[in-house]
Design a protein that fits this description.
Number of helices: 10
Order of helices and strands: HHEHHEEHEHEHEHEHH
Oligomer: single chain
Largest sheet: 4 strands, mixed
Strand order of the largest sheet: 4-7-6-5
Distance between the termini: 10 Å
Structural class: alpha+beta
Radius of gyration: 18 Å
Number of domains: 2
Length: 224
């Protein structure tokens, strides 16, 4: 998987609200997931619109920038994921993880204990997800992220009450889950985990990024 990039016109996406961007990112994720897991590179806009119950306009918008940088090649009746890495890094550069945080707090517990208290409806994300994907984490980590439908948020707050010590940096982050994430299982997928960790500021994120990239390269090489 090469790292060649392209010039992305960020202004094209700045007009979209957060809800629309989540839809667009859902499509990008789906294309990467299908290529990586099912060796599927060819899609139609109608197929995606039907699968996610999105308008054809939304699907078309999601393909505009990837097409401009050569990540996607459009044909008359279908389109092809031409460059996996370009789409992955484009998504990583545009992702805004902080905008998905719906709750955060500090919990004075070891990481493994915090992870054991994550609600059963949650989807492990970032370092917790990477640990499960990689089996052996490449570095110690001190924060737990998980996606959760906001209808379960009060239960999460009961498990992880708001910290009274405001001098402590948060180490538990609840991210708003969208409805499509559930079908991918209890941990975020390999591409989603990569993109989310890319958007953290933690010094220990770098070795996770490296190992997740290697994992994708190995998997992609087998499928290609």
């Amino acid at each position: 998987m090469g790292k060649d990039g392209g010039n992305i016109d960020f202004r094209h996406l700045s007009k979209y609200n957060h809800f629309t961007m989540l839809k667009i990112e859902t499509i990008w994720h789906h294309l990467l997931f299908e290529a990586l897991n099912n060796q599927k590179y060819k899609f139609t806009q109608k197929e995606l619109a039907n699968e996610f119950f999105y308008s054809l306009s939304t699907i078309n918008h999601s393909l505009k920038i990837p097409s401009q940088i050569g990540a996607i090649r459009k044909e008359s009746k279908f389109f092809v994921l031409e460059n996996f890495t370009k789409l992955l890094y484009m998504w990583a550069s545009l992702r805004n993880l902080d905008s998905d945080i719906i709750y955060q707090t500090y919990v004075d517990m070891p990481i493994n204990e915090i992870e054991s208290l994550v609600p059963p409806q949650a989807i492990y994300a970032c370092y917790s997800a990477a640990r499960k994907i990689l089996v052996e984490p490449p570095a110690d980590y001190s924060k737990v992220y998980f996606y959760l439908d906001d209808s379960y948020l009060e239960g999460a707050k009961n498990r992880f009450p708001k910290a009274t010590n405001i001098n402590k940096e948060s180490n538990v982050y609840v991210l708003k889950a969208n409805k499509t994430m559930i079908k991918y299982g209890p941990i975020t997928t390999l591409p989603q985990t990569f993109v989310d960790i890319w958007n953290t500021k933690d010094w220990y994120g770098h070795p996770f990024i490296q190992e997740l990239q290697k994992k994708m390269e190995e998997k992609y090489a087998v499928l290609s």
